[in-house]
Write a sequence for this structure.
């Protein structure tokens, strides 16, 4: 299109007269409008046709389809994200969650991808199984209270969050619950949440949301330090987590990943790694049970 406009301009300029210059000025806005219309149409067309096979690598697709879930734990020799669906939010996820990873300061990083057929959840209630419903569920911070996780050390189920609610002031000395902001579109919304975590105790998180026709994205980082007993385990901003839910028509893709940067003795590090891994599974199971 740019080449066409340039050639058109050069041809008009070859015959300089007022009438033809005005004619060019008349047609140019129409051409630009036509080009923008095509762009918007193409963008909407793509949004309506997100398919699993088009946004996952062939290798990921091969492993995911028969098993409905796939995991990747990072290491010092393997610290590149491999499971992120290639959609509008792919670069944002990679940069936000895994952008600080380096071999010399590797803490714990993992990504998990789940395939959730809508047939498994469509009979539970009358809610539409679309991005709007996903958005409302993931913004219902208060409903995360009582979330269950499986403790690998104790080999039993336990409560991950004994308290969970939105807060207005993340710097307050005493926190009081504010209502969930789960109505309407979530795109661009930022909130703070208080979570009383089984492993890290009381902490505050900053949560940002993105949403389009087919995707919902939650980006989460610790606003306050995370403590493990008397030890300050994770500094503010050093735990990054995301949840991205993609509507693929007859199924959802649920991507979740986190990265925590910390330095601890090996015995404690293993316990923290188990805790971080268990909470990814817990959040997915909680999400699935909200329908």
């Amino acid at each position: 299109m740019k080449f066409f406009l340039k050639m058109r301009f050069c041809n008009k300029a070859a015959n300089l007269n007022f009438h033809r210059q005005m004619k060019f000025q008349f047609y140019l806005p129409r051409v630009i409008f036509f080009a923008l219309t095509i762009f918007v149409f193409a963008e909407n067309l793509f949004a309506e046709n997100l398919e699993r096979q088009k946004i996952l690598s062939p290798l990921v697709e091969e492993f995911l389809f028969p098993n409905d879930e796939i995991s990747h734990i990072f290491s010092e020799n393997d610290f590149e994200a491999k499971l992120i669906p290639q959609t509008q939010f792919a670069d944002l996820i990679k940069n936000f969650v895994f952008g600080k990873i380096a071999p010399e300061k590797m803490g714990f990083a993992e990504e998990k991808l789940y395939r959730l057929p809508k047939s498994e959840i469509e009979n539970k209630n009358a809610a539409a199984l679309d991005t709007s419903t996903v958005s409302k569920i993931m913004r219902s911070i208060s409903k995360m209270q009582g979330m269950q996780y499986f403790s690998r050390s104790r080999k039993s189920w336990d409560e991950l969050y004994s308290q969970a609610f939105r807060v207005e002031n993340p710097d307050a000395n005493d926190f009081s619950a504010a209502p969930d902001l789960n109505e309407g579109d979530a795109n661009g919304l930022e909130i703070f949440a208080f979570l009383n975590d089984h492993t890290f105790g009381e902490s505050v998180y900053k949560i940002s949301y993105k949403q389009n026709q087919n995707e919902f994205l939650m980006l989460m980082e610790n606003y306050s330090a995370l403590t493990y007993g008397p030890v300050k385990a994770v500094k503010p901003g050093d735990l990054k987590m995301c949840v991205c839910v993609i509507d693929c028509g007859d199924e959802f893709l649920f991507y979740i990943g986190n990265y925590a940067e910390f330095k601890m003795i090996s015995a404690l590090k293993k316990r923290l790694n188990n805790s971080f891994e268990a909470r990814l599974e817990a959040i997915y199971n909680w999400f699935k049970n909200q329908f």
In short: The two ends are 47 Å apart (CA to CA). The longest strand covers residues 201-211. The helical segments are 2-13, 18-47, 52-55, 58-67, 90-98, 131-138, 266-288. Residues 241 and 258 are 4 Å apart (CA to CA).
